[in-house]
């Protein structure tokens, strides 16, 4: 059963292609240096490549634009929504099923650290709707589900948290680990972070692609930590003392508000600062059993991430 993967050159896409092996087909803009069948094209224009994807029975749409800022976010919002809708139509044309890879942030963002969202939870739009990336993912989920019902396409949404591990060649997911390694962590806000290993998410997706029946939604939780604990754990595995001070929420809130009016050099984008005051918690009701999702220990993930980043920096 052939599975076509969008976002094939990305962090998750490459790991998934390796696990799918002979069952994989990669949708690419430029050829990959991987021994896998490749179809040239983009998720936005499936009509241009559908004839080359005959025999594909599962589409995994893992392509997406991630930009945590309100500046110049229009292209990202359009891509994340329009590409998801286009992939629903592609699934209909191929008589295939669709896996829409989303994010835990659509439901799992809270003001307190003691709350977790499961697969039945409502969208956290009241909190994350002010951030273009998460709002685009909520709209992509909502509109894709509606279109899939109209067209009779079997579809599921998979929500992982931040992905860590080796192989983040684009440097998007491992930014917070790199901050510690590069000495670019100015201070530590009072919020939290949720993350898991990209290799374990890829394995769960590979298992999902082979299942005869799907549920509506799957969560792939890993580890949730306060930002203080997270950065200290990174420091532990990297052998770097984390001595940056904690900064009260009211100070971070003030910096975010100021940064929204006047750019502040050496500080993260105001959206990133706003996110850093929140907590990210979610769980699964069935992914462990149904997808054999077994996330490895978070210290191992952090250690492998640090080792890979250091090896990559050494080569460059």
User: Overall mean pLDDT score?
Assistant: 95
Would you tell me which CATH topology applies?
Rossmann fold
**CATH H-level superfamily:** NAD(P)-binding Rossmann-like Domain
**Number of helices in the DSSP assignment:** 11
Largest sheet: 7 strands, parallel
Name the CATH architecture.
3-Layer(aba) Sandwich
Low-confidence residue ranges: none
Share in β-strands: 15-25%
- Count of separate structural domains: 1
Compact description:
The chain has eleven helices and twelve strands. It is α/β, with parallel strands linked by helices and 316 residues long.
Provide a descriptive summary of the structure in words.
- The chain has about 325 residues and is α/β, with parallel strands linked by helices.
- It has helices at about 10-20, 75-95, 125-130, 130-150, 175-180, 200-210, 225-240, 250-260, 270-275, 285-290, 300-315; strands at about 1-5, 25-30, 40, 55-60, 95-100, 110, 155-160, 160-165, 190-195, 215-220, 225, 280.
- The protein has one domain: 3-Layer(aba) Sandwich (Rossmann fold), CATH 3.40.50.
- The strands form three sheets. A seven-stranded parallel β-sheet has the order 3-2-1-4-5-7-10, sandwiched between helices. Strands 8-9-11 form a three-stranded mixed β-sheet.
- Strand 8, helix 5 and strand 9 form a beta-alpha-beta unit.
- The radius of gyration is 19 Å and the shape is globular.
- The termini are far apart.
